[in-house]
Specification:
Layout (H helix, E strand, L loop, with lengths): L4 H13 L1 H16 L3 H15 L2 H8 L3 H7 L8 H15 L10
Length: 105
């Protein structure tokens, strides 16, 4: 099920200007990956990247080729764990946030 384009445009617009939303979506992407939901995690990362940075900047910051980033963030992306980690590290640094893991209560 895809979301209406108007909704996605609103989310992307907010991501550009709302640091708390960027941090929350990045945390949700990490949570999705850690829960085994690779598809949701990749879609969230793709939305974040599309709204907040250029692929060329992400490529320069991660050492991953731009074509490979586009492949990773596409519908048939098959990223390696090291690529996901590099993207998370870059986005955390770019957004000035640090994701942490805490034990369940």
């Amino acid at each position: 099920m895809s979301l209406p384009q108007e909704f996605m445009d609103t989310v992307r617009s907010r991501l550009k200007h709302d640091g708390a939303l960027r941090a929350a979506m990045l945390a949700e992407a990490a949570s999705a990956f850690l829960s085994g939901d690779l598809g949701i995690g990749l879609q969230l990362i793709a939305d974040i990247v599309q709204a907040t940075t250029e692929v060329t900047r992400l490529a320069a910051g991660t050492g991953i080729e731009p074509d490979r980033i586009n492949e990773i963030l596409g519908l048939k992306g098959r990223p390696h764990a090291d690529e996901i980690v590099k993207i998370f590290v870059y986005l955390q640094d770019d957004f000035g946030v640090r994701l942490t893991v805490q034990p369940a209560a």
